[in-house]
Amino acid sequence: MAGCAATAPPRTIIENCGPWSPIVVSKADVLTDSTAKQILSHDCVGVRLHCWPPPTPQACQAPPAQTK
Question: Is the pLDDT of residue 7 over 80?
Fold first, then answer.
């Protein structure tokens, strides 16, 4: 049975990053909080895939747990 098993080669950074890049917001842009969170989420996925560095050292760290 081992002869039937196929393993895919690991994906490279270029394949993971493909055609996308970080979204850079201009100081002149006006964003809602929701849009800003979506942009940060997109950019942090790229950081986790090692496509690009985080915009700031703390940008893509998990937020602290909220206490009640």
Answer: no
